[in-house]
Amino acid sequence: MDDLALAARGGGGMSGDIAILGAGMHPWGKWGRSFVEYGTTAARAALADAGIDWTQVESVVGADTVRGGYPGHVAGATFAKALGWQGARVTSVYAACASGSQAIGAARAQILAGLADVVLVVGADAAPKGFFAPAGGERPDDPDWLRFRVLGATNPAYFGLYARRRMALHGDTVDDFAQVKVKNAAAGALNANARYRKTVSAEEVAASAVVADPLRLLDICATSDGAAALVLTSMDFARRHGAADPVRIRAVSTVTPTYPRAVLDLPDIATDSAVSVEPPPHSFRASIARAAYEEAGIGPEDVSLAEVYDLSTALELEWYEDLGLCGTGEGAKLLRDGATALGGRIPVNTSGGLASFGEAVPAQAIAQVCELTWQLRGAAGDRQVTGARVGITANQGLFGHGSSVIAVR
Amino acid sequence: MTDARTRTPVVAGWFTDTQGQDFRLLGTRCTACASVFFPREDAFCRNPGCVGGKLAEVPLSKRGRVWSYTDGRYRPPSPYVSDPHVEWQPSVLVAVELAAERMVVLGQAAPGVSAADLAVGMEVEVVPGVLNEDADTTWTTWHWRPVGVAA
């Protein structure tokens, strides 16, 4: 038994662990049906995986979205109704791309507070085609509306800015970016839940149209329909249920940035000014992972695999550095060395990532934890990371919503 | 025709209504801690360590250096305004680091500037520009233009 396992078992009442008893998804794609159907499918799959009847669920937490609906409809109660009203407590959270991890965070808080033993977390989306656009109307007090109105700055525009900055600062090349797609497509080809299940060559990336210089269509994630769900329980319930050694969630980081936020990030038109306060030593993205590591009492050297938010290929390289898998500016080298591919030292996006899934906003952070669950159970099939013990997810929601989950076995 | 239109800033209070060399972006500065805000904050200073001071309008530096840049090869969705009957021309976005304010401000590049004309670290200056025009209004904005390039 290693130190991590000892810590989990020895903690008793002190332990902040909760159990992941079930994980389920609706495959990603463009299915043309309601998000309710996707979410219900994922929820039923997670319940079946856990061996838990829906009527045993004491609390439902829904991850919300705005762009494919609105967060009163795309919400926990909608899934509770679809599964058949049974009176469970309901919570709905909105945090843009981080909605899923906030849902997990809310579920964990309820379990650790003793408010519920069995919580179902669901996120589902039916994404509109094309660029994400802000909510309608004339709303000049909303930075998200303003960046479109004043600048025409789409999400890929920000990805392009980061990519170009990396090229200038660290010497990354467009071929490095293409190789991220090649790597993630190879993993996605092995995942039945992925939307894109074909390998992609660097030549195919280079032949795709430029969307936002220097990034091409195949560097940028699509928007998809999809759903993911988890059944989370207290460790005591898991034991009573016969799961002696379940995958555990050991940390959920939902931090906000620290002033002054010195790196330009969507949807903002400018950074904070650092003229009167020195910027914090770590960027917002890095602070998300650091908070998770600190809570789990582990470091990057302990990680077996990571699921990161590869909105663009270049952004995946940034996450390597932000997660401490390598030093600043060394992301492309880590990729070139093959360390982050399946079979490498620290595989990243073994699910295929957003490159293979496309983004179904409120489901995505939950889907990342589904992949960790299957990997840590040793049930990831052809994508299995040998001897996986610790997994970390990283993600970030528009407006300053941090998201990182650490799961262990 | 242009003369009949009213010139209106796309957002009120973000830049001066002067033309030529006097054109500047407008932010606010906290009178207690000297933090600068753009887009402007007029109610509260956002520095969490500041006791809170009045916010006074301040022009931002005219020149800065390119932090990064990109372009949009596809027509952005509404509320960006463009004529769907006219073929989309890539629009260039520049993120500019202002040394005195220690901040980065995004903007469109001046017409005629392409991504290939830009480099990280290049000096640029803010110039008045037009975002779009409709029957009654010329909507004005700010543009970033490499220093030494004629208008």
What is the secondary structure topology, with strand pairs?
The complex is a heterodimer of chains A (409) and B (151).
Chain A: H1 3-10, E1 18-29, H2 35-50, E2 59-63, H3 76-83, E3 89-93, H4 99-112, E4 118-125, H5 143-151, H6 155-170, H7 174-188, H8 202-207, E5 210-212, E6 215-216, E7 225-233, H9 235-240, E8 247-253, H10 284-296, E9 305-308, H11 313-322, H12 331-336, H13 353-357, H14 361-377, E10 390-397, E11 401-408
Parallel strand pairs in A: 2-3, 2-4, 9-10
Antiparallel strand pairs in A: 1-7, 1-8, 4-7, 5-6, 8-11, 10-11
Chain B: E1 6-9, E2 26-30, E3 36-37, E4 55-59, E5 63-72, E6 91-98, E7 103-109, E8 123-133, E9 137-146
Parallel strand pairs in B: 1-9, 7-9
Antiparallel strand pairs in B: 2-3, 2-4, 5-6, 5-8, 6-7, 8-9
Q: What would your notes on this structure say?
A:
The complex is a heterodimer of chains A (409) and B (151). Chain A has 409 residues and is of the alpha/beta class. Chain A has two domains: 12-128 and 226-247, Thiolase/Chalcone synthase (Peroxisomal Thiolase, Chain A, domain 1, 3-Layer(aba) Sandwich), CATH 3.40.47; 145-223 and 250-408, 3-Layer(aba) Sandwich (Peroxisomal Thiolase, Chain A, domain 1). Chain A is built from 14 helices and eleven strands. In chain A, the strands form two sheets. Chain A has a nine-stranded mixed beta sheet with strand order 3-2-4-7-1-8-11-10-9, sandwiched between helices. In chain A, a hairpin with a 2-residue loop joins β5 and β6. In chain A, α2 crosses α3 (76-83), α4 packs across α14 (361-377) and α7 crosses α11 (313-322). The longest helix of chain A has 17 residues, at 361-377. Chain A is globular, with a radius of gyration of 20 Å. Mean pLDDT of chain A is 94; it is low at 1-14. Chain B is an all-beta fold and 151 residues long. Chain B has two domains: 11-60, no CATH class; 61-151, no CATH class. Helix content of chain B is 0%, strand content 41%. In chain B, strands 5-6-7-9-8 form a five-stranded mixed barrel. In chain B, strands 3-2-4 form a three-stranded antiparallel beta sheet, with no helix packed on it. In chain B, β2 (26-30) and β3 (36-37) form a beta hairpin. The mean pLDDT of chain B is 94. Chains A and B meet through α5, α6 and β5 of A and β3, β5, β6 and β7 of B.
